[in-house]
Amino acid sequence: MRALLGFVRGLPVATKLITFLYAVFSVTTIVQRRRLQEDLIDREAAGVAGVDPGRFFVLRPGTVARYPWTLVTGALVESNIVFLVCGIVALCSVGSFLERQWGTRGYAIFMLVVSIVPAVTSIVAVVILYAVRGSADILYTTQVCGLAAVVSAYTVGLKQLVPDYTVKLFRGTLSFRVNDVSGVYTLVAPIMFTLLGDVGSVLLVNIGFVESFIYLRFYKRSGSTRGDRSEAFAFVTFFPEFVRPVVSRLSAFVYNVAVRLRVVTADEGYVQAVDLEEGNLEHVDADADRRRALAAKALEQRLEESAENIGASN
């Protein structure tokens, strides 16, 4: 217990706050829903959404106009106890690692972006489904909540920082490269959520992956520049070799359209900005490699500390 308390005290500020709110909102919603479960059985979808104890935290397309703050709180609510525990582990491990790499301010901005933007996009997607199906129930039964988008964003962040690092669990019995985590998660998680009938999480997994990549690739400030245009972090590197030619053509088309619409800066403009601010273009990739090496070393130290804490608690 002492080791666990020491681990919690050692967590960065933003990680502590986000994990605390996530636990409180989720547990409150789960407990209150269990108390009212029998009263909700015979109600229609809109009626359930209107009396659901979680309506003040959970984001639903049909109630977002009444409770607009759920665009922020939606990511901090999980109605499944197993996913709640997994979410806490993800926040305390990966979240704390990213906060130490990016700083509290950078991590907080990242969390806001990968929580709110996927939520808004998911609402638009559900409204489109409503327009196609013509049934308003989907606006109230679809819950856009939980850390599905955030976990997708975490895998993208790890891919940027430590793509070649190999994680070894259970004394090396299970090992995997960080570079492969995004692909596995975005493949397996949507299938799992589909089987569970969780449309909102299916949307969040895929949207969170794409939008977190866009943010880290083009917008996140790193020193004097924005984004990470290195080849090691190109969109095509997230996919297996056999589909990369197709993905490359598709991503190039989308990128060119975005440049013409001035949504993102062209690579030429990015390179010129780096040249003016840093004086040497050759330093760009070298600096990115240096940051990845430092991040890999920090991750190694964190895993060793976690193993020591677990051993001490036993």
Q: What sequence of helices (H) and strands (E) makes up the elements?
A: HHHHHHHHEEHHEEHHH
The largest β sheet comes out as: 2 strands, antiparallel
Q: How far is the first residue's CA from the last residue's CA?
A: 9 Å
What is the strand content? under 5%
Determine the structural class based on helices, strands and strand pairing: mainly alpha
Mind telling me the C-alpha Rg?
Answer: 21 Å
Number of domains: 1
Identify the strand order in the major beta sheet: 1-2
Mean pLDDT: 82
What proportion of the residues is helical, as a percent range? 55-70%
Protein architecture, described:
The relative contact order is 0.10. The termini are close together. With 314 residues, the protein is mostly helical. The chain has one domain. Helix 1 packs antiparallel against helix 13 (282-313), helix 8 packs parallel to helix 10 and helix 9 (181-195) runs antiparallel to helix 10 (199-219). Helix content is 68%, strand content 4%. It is globular, with a radius of gyration of 21 Å.
What is the fold's blueprint, element by element?
Elements: H1 2-9, H2 13-35, H3 37-40, H4 45-51, H5 70-73, H6 81-133, H7 137-141, H8 148-161, E1 166-169, E2 174-177, H9 181-195, H10 199-219, E3 221-222, E4 225-226, H11 244-260, H12 267-278, H13 282-313
Antiparallel strand pairs: 1-2, 3-4
